[in-house]
Amino acid sequence: MSTLLEVSGVSVTFDGFRAINNLSFSIAEGELRAVIGPNGAGKTTFMDIVTGKTRPDSGRVLFGEKSVDLLRLSEARIARAGVGRKFQRPTVFEDQTVAENLMLALRAHRAPWRVLFWRPKPADHARIAELAAEVGLSDQLPRKAGELSHGQKQWLEIGMLLAQEPRLLLVDEPAAGMTGPEREHTTDLLVSLARSRAVVVVEHDMEFVRRLACKVTVLHEGSVLAEGSLDHVTANPAVIDVYLGRG
Ligand SMILES: Nc1ncnc2c1ncn2[C@@H]1O[C@H](COP(=O)(O)OP(=O)(O)OP(=O)(O)O)[C@@H](O)[C@H]1O
């Protein structure tokens, strides 16, 4: 599989504190990857760098077959280049229906001058039905988003991100606040999304990570401490020492 994202030698210092320290790793096209690590390991900062919210002091972040340097692009251009990010808290429009939320996301995907003149076409309605089916909300399309369960709101937001057709989806702690069945649906959803795009999941819940059955990167003090299957990294004494042993 070819490389989609390559982070190399990235460092960020906040007020003299090195939050990301010479971080290097790569994500393949269509890969599902879990990123774990103790509080303060740099997981959020890593996502902030890839999405352009935080600018590193040094290093490179290359994306796609043309190796576009994301560090030269604005946040909006990074999103348009194919990087989507799902924050921990759902940010759907509560007073709009599920269908309207998806429609807004489709509309927002257009370049700013196009949004102004955009009117939904039959193909857009079909796309909304497709997006809803992809995240398991086909039977919820007429409902107000505010009436959905926490898990359903999260899936709706994922559906809205899919409207941008990302090639890389970054997902921050999806299992937080979900019921058992919602977690199961979310694992299945992430696994199925990764069939046609790369998905990077930051998560603390080890059972959730186990069910993803993917390669795991352990961050510690802003660098990669270990990488491999969950069984491989959780057997690593250094990982047990800094992360698992503390629980
Ligand atoms: N804007 C900032 N200014 C100062 N320090 C920051 C800033 N952002 C992050 N940090 C620090 O950088 C370190 C890495 O933080 P980060 O949020 O990336 O860790 P994390 O692995 O996501 O942790 P958690 O699991 O708790 O979310 C922390 O020590 C944090 O306090």
TrEMBL record:
Keyword terms: ATP-binding, Nucleotide-binding, Transport
InterPro entries the record matches: AAA+_ATPase (IPR003593), ABC_AA/LPS_Transport (IPR051120), ABC_transporter-like_ATP-bd (IPR003439), ABC_transptr_urea_ATP-bd_UrtD (IPR017781), BCA_ABC_TP_C (IPR032823), P-loop_NTPase (IPR027417)
A GO MF term: ATP hydrolysis activity
CDD domains: ABC_Mj1267_LivG_branched (cd03219)
Coiled coil: none
Domain of life: Bacteria
GO cellular component: plasma membrane
Domain ABC transporter residues, every copy: 5-246
Keyword ATP-binding: yes
PANTHER family the UniProt entry points to: CONSERVED COMPONENT OF ABC TRANSPORTER FOR NATURAL AMINO ACIDS-RELATED, HIGH-AFFINITY BRANCHED-CHAIN AMINO ACID TRANSPORT ATP-BINDING PROTEIN
Protein name: Urea transport system ATP-binding protein
Source organism of this protein record: Phaeovulum vinaykumarii
